[in-house]
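**Discrete fold encoding**
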Amino acid sequence: MKLRNILGALLCASLLAAFAATGAAAEEVDATPPTVSANSDAGISPQAEDIIEIRYRLEPYTKKLQYRRWNVTKNRWQDSVWIYVV
């Protein structure tokens, strides 16, 4: 039992020494971001924006004008329901 306590204490001491040495050897990091020129070709290239069309219809029961937006780029409705034009 005494040997187990001594080995546990030695293990803890060696771990503490290892962590202390790692923290002391850490170097400082320069936190300034790199500068990128505006005319750089290596930067992010702009992508095409979505093309949105507005579609109109007369509501079949009330005959009121409604609209809904259609996304041509993604080929789906932008709005989930038809909206009344006030």
In short: The mean pLDDT is 82. DSSP finds one helix and four strands in the chain.
